[in-house]
Amino acid sequence: MSFIKKGLLQTPVSLIVAKRFRGKINVQKPRKPHFEKQLLIDISKPYYGPPKNSVPEITLCANINKKSYKREIDNPFERILAKECLDWFNTSKMVVFLHVNSISMEDKTPVFAALKKNDMHLRTYGKKIVSMATKGTRYEVINQLFTSHQNIIFGQPENAAKMFKILRKAPQLVVMGGIIEDRLISKNDLVEYSKLPSLDIVRSQLCSVLQSAGSCLVGQLNQNQQMLVSHLEKHVEIQKAPSNSTDNLNANAKSESTL
Asked: Residue 26: is it exposed, middle or buried by C-beta count within 10 angstroms (0-12/13-18/19+)?
């Protein structure tokens, strides 16, 4: 018998035995659970908030601006960036706003280096930083151009033609407009401005125009005097012509009488 028990597999004996309650379970008044189960029930109990009848009507309005209830946190780093952005606006006579399409950093780095080489600086600022920097200044109107992070080029107006030449290599950077000499202009006006000659050439052209106008004025003032002088010379010549003819006739008459 012992040999048979060792040869055959023995069935394991379960430690838990299910038993049936003889009495009925009271569904209306169940028994309180033990401490650990009650603790689990309290932790996993959902929170539904206060009932709507106890909440003011203004909070139930769906059209209310929820952003006004958000608490703004004072970030010192954002204030530093806003001060830096305002300094760029105040020290740069040319500010160009760019719309950036999908572009990799590998394609953007050569553009950044080329702009830096030509004394232009490409910076990226968010809407919040720009609004903090331009609030209460003359540049506050540009906040309408910002919806998220935007790229801005800071430089001098004489480098506008070089900027457009550099941006041709990166069509993902689209010019929206700019500020030239504290004046907000569109892209078309910015392109026309880049085609203008330099200040030295314009000054030389202005000097030549002024000089030609002065010489023309002098010629017009001397024209009447010259005409008067020419008329007087002709009048003198006309008066001398009859006296010469009479002298010739007298000379001819004397020669005939002698003969």
From this structure: exposed
